[in-house]
Amino acid sequence: MLRFVLITFALVGFMTKADNKNFTSESQLVNRYANEIADFWQQGYFSHFSGVNDVRINYATFINIDKTVPAKCLIISSGRSESYLKYKELSYDLYNHGYSVFLIDHRGQGLSQRLLTDSHKGYVEDFQHYVDDLATFIENTVTPHCQGNKPYILAHSMGGAIAARYMQDFPDKIKAAVLSSPMLGFNSGNVPEVIAKSVLTISAQLNQWFDDHPWYFLGHKGFTQHTFSENKLMHSSVRYQLFTQLYQSTPEIQLGGVSVQWLTTSQLALEKIFNNIDKVKTPTLVLQAGQDQIIKNQAQDDFCQQLHKLQPQSCPHGKPIIVANAYHELFFESDTFREQALQTAIQWFEQH
Hints:
Layout: H1 2-17, H2 26-34, H3 36-42, E1 45-50, E2 56-62, E3 73-77, H4 88-95, E4 100-104, H5 127-142, E5 152-156, H6 158-169, E6 177-180, H7 193-210, H8 237-249, H9 260-275, E7 284-289, H10 297-310, E8 321-323, H11 335-351
Parallel strand pairs: 3-4, 3-5, 5-6, 6-7, 7-8
Antiparallel strand pairs: 1-2, 2-4
Helix pairs in contact: 2-3, 5-6, 6-9, 7-9
């Protein structure tokens, strides 16, 4: 009890020290990361729960105890290969905009339990396990702090697909959602989609016939890091430097490429999203990175067009909100792109 009181008093202090009208800028980041953000992070609550098949799922919470406003709970569903440790700056900024922040490391990545002996191999037995883990997290960890209010969800990339599937299974649990660069279709580059799917099907069959262990998909391998000039995730050199330093200093969160099984079950999940799009009742906004080279932007366009016809409160004008010229990682981008994405997300939440 004493620990909780000390934590709550400490977190209140951040509301007075930080400018809650602005977001952290690149020029502030290094100093703030070592001071205010580091202090803020130490006040979080870090724990784990048992997900599907008793897999350990790690999470972090930052409870905003400002009693002058109604509770605003915000769940962050991160992308593939990410850990909540990557989201310190974003959590700090969102907290200082009045939100209690809840972060989950999806199974098989981050600090959560790995599912294979090769801990670098991106794997999940069934994509639905991600969804069921998220449901457990929301029901048991998030909801008790929300004072009867429904939480919001901010979901990135793979986390966007997980959130979409969750909202189909639980259409009345989330107040409003923002999907940032959501993984709604795979970018196969210059390879036609029909050929890419055929290669996946053949790879899965061969893996099943000849090996009891999941294979990496063609061209994928263990954890590697690219130089800033090679990266296609963000334009911000300072945020990329912090990102690479985190993964170098914390090897337990490193993750490599995807397995054939991960790609197979993920593809089935994306088909389920589109086949059951009428079940997404939550007001949903899609943020699209204009120069995204990681996922397929056309799939986001199709999603918004179809969803808006069924649920006019979602995807205004039937389109994603495009952050022109931005790369995939909108919340780790250069200030101009990041601020546009964050302001749009917060405005959407405040409208609901």
